[in-house]
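I hope you will forgive my troubling you with a question about protein structure. The full record is reproduced below for your convenience:

——
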Amino acid sequence: MKTLGIIGGMGPQATIDLYQKITDHTAASRDQDHLHILIDSYPQIPDRTAHICGNGDDPLPYLVRSARRLEAAGAELLLMPCNAAHHYIRALRERTILPFLHIADCAIAALSTRCPPGSRVAVLATRGTRHSGIYRDALQQAGYQAVEPDEAQSAALMRCIYDGAKAGNTAAYVPLLADTVAAITADSLILACTELPLFLPWWQDSRPVIDSTDALARVAVAAAREAA
């Protein structure tokens, strides 16, 4: 099986969530049945949204450094539990010999098993991911209608992500998240920020909800097993 390498720390709780979901989706009856996973938790990577929106340091050199550490340690397949970081994935692929899984591709593949093309899909994400267009473009190519929150809803989502999940106050921001998402007209939802699945123990929606972290974990397990 292939050794997975995780560029982590964006943020740490999202990295833990990905590792937990990879473990949960691995068919194992003993320790030795689990995947070999290398994690470079590197929270010093500059904020992706700040840079994409034009007011922060460039995270690309840090992402490259992490990828190369994982490559040197023996990783064979790379993944990042941060949607906004995929704004830089083309440049990353040019700077490492290792293949990368793309979280948006994984999420939309999961969406296709639950919702028909032509339906309206709300992309719940940071401003950086929204500005990058990675979900908007991929959804349109797959035949879906991408629904993006308005400015007030986007500001509320940013508060939930940064003041809530990233600051360790997830439960306190559940009401704001629930009210914000309920006001968005869509047939299904993509949690296109890896902090948003951290709300799932307290929050649910009646519409199909695609957890991008879970989708990435499932594809990573399958990809690692393919080489067995």
Remarks:
- Residues 151-165 form the longest helix (15 residues).
- The mean pLDDT is 97.
